[in-house]
Amino acid sequence: MKGHVPTPDDLADHIVEKLFRENPPAAGETILYPGCGKGPFIAAVERYCNTNGHPIPEGVAIELDPEHLTAARERHADLPVEFQERDFLGDVADLGEFEYIVGNPPYVPIEGLDEDEKQRYKQQFNTAIGRFDLYILFFEQSLNLLAEDGRLSFITPEKFEYVDTGSELRKRLASRHIEEIEHVAEDAFGELLTYPAITTIENTSPGETHIRLRDGTERTVDLPDDGDSWAPIIRGGVPEMNTGATLDDVTTRVSCGVATGADSLFVQDREAVPPQLIENGWTYPTTSGRQLQQNDGPDSGQLLICPYDEHGNLPPEDELGEYGDWAEIHRDRLEDRSCVEKGKVWYSMHENPPLDDILQPKILTKDVTAEPQFWADREGEVVPRHSVYYIIPKDHVELDELRAYLNSEQAQVWIEAHAQKAHNDYYRMQSKVLKQLPVPKDLGQSHQATLPGLD
């Protein structure tokens, strides 16, 4: 099985302790090790049972990689475990049910699957929606094999708690008792940053869930069972903000900045840009997310050399003028880009910038940040790059008023409760999340007044 990540022994011990907590194994009970790899959980179960004087449950270990399976079989030949070389995401109805299931499912995003795999999984699994990951399917398959009153402990990325792709899984998990979710250290697997969470399920009626966060915070919560994101509740709740309007209602665009495909060429310090390009309108002020934060605003001192007109149209080659002269000098580098290989014109950028929208007064924010922060481009002259999100208010919405709200504690708490996590526990800004941000009452009233059919 692709996506295998070895589980350190101390982490496997920690997970197994949760699995057997309050319900240690008894004689005749069974345990399943899906995607067992080389058997770190088999060893952890043996250590737990020997230390605490409990019988080792009869196990079935499933692994598709023959080398890993051989290693596991050799290491644990003296234990009551049946080793099977098979695809856990295939037909496993013959396995029966298990009192315990434990593991570290493979992390494989949809991009790592071929078309046949994608179609097969979508037909077989209810949780295979959107840009699903294999670990989500492992959850569903395992829940189907969990006996009544049985217990399951998995370590997976925490993303299933809040991404749209995890909505169906959240419904299925919430139909049981999610006993605990613990967010463990982001470097629990060494240099592989996965933001892991240990989820412990008891196959009984739903009940309260104990939450343990990386900063040591603990709380007991009732998780929603309708598929909505769990992030606001897990992270501590959000202020009541039922205004009836969202950021999407009071803006014309919330988008990621421009991807040039070659920033080292298209972006240069103002002093390094040929004067004729500046004089004849082939450049715009620009900023990256890092510069936005370093400079406390969009004035970076750099320019974007841009072949597009003010409407985002790419002129034909014989109308490029000074830009064409500059581009010809760098033609080899411009042609040596993946976007050109895929059919883009050699002197174009990776994507056509929607300059009609971008060249307006707007609000800017860094795409990955320790805390949400927003700046203004009041003149509408800056073309933000791909590491910046830009927000265009509607005509009736005052830019500085909206920016002040976005920088308020109320908005920041909401965004931090809903945003996806990135490295170092930073927050990842995304259009679909920002658009859902409730706006304050006065902006909401302005929105209502502009709706068709209202005076």
UniProtKB/TrEMBL annotation:
Residues 344-439 form the TaqI-like C-terminal specificity domain. It catalyses: a 2'-deoxyadenosine in DNA + S-adenosyl-L-methionine = an N(6)-methyl-2'-deoxyadenosine in DNA + S-adenosyl-L-homocysteine + H(+). The keyword Transferase applies. One of its GO terms (molecular function) is site-specific DNA-methyltransferase (adenine-specific) activity. Its EC number is 2.1.1.72. GO terms for biological process: DNA restriction-modification system; methylation. Keywords: DNA-binding, Methyltransferase, Restriction system, S-adenosyl-L-methionine, Transferase. Residues 87-187 form the Type II methyltransferase M.TaqI-like domain. Signal peptide: none annotated. The keyword Transferase applies. It comes from the Archaea. It is an enzyme of class 2 (transferase). Pfam families: Eco57I (PF07669), TaqI_C (PF12950). This is site-specific DNA-methyltransferase (adenine-specific). It comes from Halospeciosus flavus.
